[in-house]
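Sequence in, structure out. Go.
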Amino acid sequence: MANRTGAVLNALFSCILFLAACNSPYTTKNKGYSKLSFPAKSYQVFNQTAAPYSFEYPSYALIDENVNEQRSGLQKGKWLNIRFPGQEATIYISYIAMQAKQLDTLIRDAYTFANNHNNRASSIADSVFQNKQGVEGIFFTIGGEVATPYQFFVTDSTRHFFRGALYYDTTPNQDSLAPVNAFLLEDIKHILNTFSWKK
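Output:
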């Protein structure tokens, strides 16, 4: 009988504790993201022999030219990826040695690639730029939960067309990627500001 009474008292005590815990005030926690740390800005020159262009890129990025294994003819040795391992991001670069009357098609394609994100984008803005070397192009800023926040192209309008798009290796999240976007935007601008044609 004593054992049974003790078991009932234990059960009753447990219920009282449970009910008391349920009545305690609930405190909401703000959703947050880990603080990110970025490397110091420093740059090095990309001046590969086969490429008809050069530019400065971040020292914490890696140039991957393996994409050229699939290229032949005039495009061979001129495509590349600029990888940012610390930020899990890549700028995919394509190069076209233009043929006569091909410029309009290539520009239209660049706009199509940017506008392909319309269904997820909150905004798409394009802006014309020209750097100190006289290189001209268009820069696209794509807002919202998109896989690519920045795209661009540069061209001399007659022979060369160079296009790039930044993609992340993670699922897009505008809030968590905002500081990374800002960090990499500086690097993309530096690439474009130091870009020059060799011939």
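Check: The chain has one domain: 43-197. The CA atoms of residues 114 and 159 lie 23 Å apart.
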